[in-house]
Structure of CBM6 domain-containing protein:
Amino acid sequence: MRTNCPVSIAAAFIGIVRYVVANPAGLVTPYIPRDLSQPAERIIYEAESAASFDPSSVVDGANSGARGDRYVDMGGIGSYLEFVVDEADEEGDEGYNPDDSNDCAISFRYASASRDGATRPCSVSVNGTVVDTLHFSTTHWWRRWDQAVVWTKVNCSPGTTIRLTALSKHGGPNIDWMALDFMYQLDPNQVEPAGSLRGSCK
């Protein structure tokens, strides 16, 4: 499902200038900014509709601000949420088919308000292989939501699994949704000016 996403023209311009200064050859070679303002495709998975989660994690709605007013309150250490990747969203760009060669930002919208301000580290695994650990810092209030992001490569073919697992005694945070932002990859034979941005947010 597509959502509105901000485009910082100034930030993009500054990034382009810095890149050109540091990489003059970039003027005649493909340049792919890892910029979430220009994803080729965004797919959102609601936490409460996850393929599976452990018995200690529960669907809740006591705290406001969640998309659809529902979220998953993760349990203690070892609690998890697992999502199964579908095919590209039907609202995506026509003819765009992400595969295992595509950079992807895995984002989790979450809330966490431990009294001691502790982070809630969780591993992120793709098809059973841990790709990174996200340290969910406190949002200071269970009704204040933030996002944590990890970059990796995700195969968008049906059946690919993404699991978030709590690693500390504090357990995991409240999770509103997971989003996959797939980025455009340029054809290696294609030449575009440095800073050429593709894709759009609608």
